[in-house]
Amino acid sequence: xGTRWLTALLVAGLAAGGGYYFWxxxxxxTLDVQTVAATxxxxxxxxxxxxTVRALGTVxxxxxxxxxxxxxxxxxxxxxxxxxxxxxxxPSTFATRVREEEAGVAIAKANVAxxxxxVARAESNLHKTELDLARAAExxxxxxxxxAVLDTTTxxxxxxxxxxxxxxxxxxxxxxxxEQRQATLDxxxxxxxxxxxxxxxxxxxxxxxxEAGQTVAASMTAPKLFTIARDLAHVQIxxxxxxxxxxxxxxxxxxxxxxxxxxDVTFKGKVEQIRLAPIALNNVVTYxxxxxxxxxxxxxxxxxxxxxxxxxxxHKDVVVVPxxxxxxxxxxxxxxxxxxxxxxTGAVLAPAGDRGARLLEKLRIQLxxxxxxxxxxxxxxxxxxxxIKNAGPPGAGAAQEDMREQARMRIAKVLRAVLTPEKxxxxxxxxxxxxxxxxxxxxxxxxxxxxxxxxxxxxxxDGSVTEVAEGLAExxxxxxxxxxxxx
Length: 487
Fold this sequence. Notes:
single chain, alpha+beta, Elongation Factor Tu (Ef-tu), domain 3, CATH 2.40.50.100, 8 helices, elongated
C-alpha cells in the first residue's frame, strides 16, 4: 500500500513540474505582435440591397371598342406626345352607324315640324269653332236661332280644344324623340372618335401588344394595346431593405447604384420614400424604399436590376482603425504581457490637456466666446479633465465611469455659471446633438513589452474600418494580431 502511494505522489509531482515548466516556457515565449496605425480617413456607412428600375409613371392604353386594328402608328421605344394617334380601329362600321343616326335625327326634326304644323291647324280649327259658337249663342239670345245648333257648335268648340292639346303633346313627344336621336348620334360620333387610339401623356412606348389587322375584343375589360412610360429622363428604383437595416434609412439619404448593363458606371440618386407596408417572404421582412434618380442619357431602362448602396452616414477626415483591431483580445501567451501597473499616456491617447483644448476651441467657435469667458472656464476645464484622467485607465469599471460623469456634470455647472442663458441653451443643444448611442470598445496597444487597454467610443463603420470618436489619437499603433514567434 505504501509503495502505491509513493508511486502516485511521484507521478503527480512530475506532472506538476512539467506543467510549471510548460507555463514558464509559454509565458517567456517571444511574441510576434502585429500593429496598424490609427489613421485619418473618410467613413461611409451603407446599406446594400438591390431593386428594380421603374419609370416614374406608366399608363396602359386600351380600347373601349371591338374591331380590327386598321392603322398602327407607334412602335416600341417611340416617343409620343399627348393626343398623338397611336393606332386606329377600322372605322367603317362606326361611320355607317353615324350616318344612320344622322338620318334618324333628320327624320325626328321633320316629325317635329309636322307636329308643329298640326298644332297650327288645331289652333285655326279651334278659332273657327269659337266664332261659330259665338254666332250661335247670339242667335239663340235674339230668339232666331235653334238651341240644337248652339249645342252642336259648343261640342265642336270643345273638340277643337282637345285636338289642340293633343297636337301640342305630339309636338313635345316629337321634340323628345329628336333629343333621343340626337343623343344616339352623339354616342355614335363618340364611338367613331374612339376608333382613334391616342396617347394621354407625353412619354415613350415601352410595350406594344397588338399588330396591324389584329382583332381586339372589348367586353368586360378594355384590352391593353400599349404601355407608355412618362418621362424616362427621371426614373425611380424600388429597393427592398431588410427590417434590421430599415431603421438607418431616412428620406434624402444619398444613394449610389450600378446596373449590369453599365458595370463601370456609378449612378447617383436619393431616397424619396419609405413605404410602411411590410413584405414578408420566407419569414424575412423587408420594406420598399423608393429611390429617385436622374436619367438624362436614357441609359437606365425600366426593368433593369440595380445594385444599390444607400449611404446612411458619412464622416470625413476622422480617426479610423481596422475592424480586426476591434476583434483582438489578448489570449494565451499574450495574457502574460498585460499591463497591470498603469496605462499609456504617450502619443497613443489624446492627453487630457489636448481634449480640454479641443473642447475650448469648439466652444469658442460654436458659442462665439470672448477672451474673458474663455479665461473663466479654462481653469475649470483643466481641473475636470485632470479628474477624468485620474479616474484611471479606460475599462476600470463602473466606478471610473461614475467619476467621469461627475466631472462632466461639474463642467456643465461651470459653463452654466459663466455663459449667458442664450449661450448655455446653445451649449445644451450641442450636447443633445452629440451621438449618445456610440458603442464602447477596447483597443490594445503594445508598448515596452506590454499590452495596454484603451476604452474608446466608436462611430461609423464600414466593411473594413471603424471610426474612433473618442479615446484614441491619430498615429496610435493598435494591435490587430499576435502570434508566437518561431524559436
